[in-house]
Amino acid sequence: MVASPAGDVKTVKKLLSKETRGANLITASSGTVLHMDATGPMSSLLTAVKETVCTMPERALAVVEGKDLNSDAF
Fold it and tell me: How many beta carbons lie within 10 A of that of residue 59, not counting itself?
């Protein structure tokens, strides 16, 4: 951490990036946003969507394991 007082921001960023990198082995980023809005008549559809969304992580994990990737990357 000698670089910090010297003002070498690039070195500090490189060090922090290296030291705080998690288990993510895949460099491409992914994000999911889900917004659901429904009224009374749509309740059965909303329930079906919630059940489907709840099974998605299990299915994604099966794909990750099927491709022999580290499950910590998920």
Answer: 10
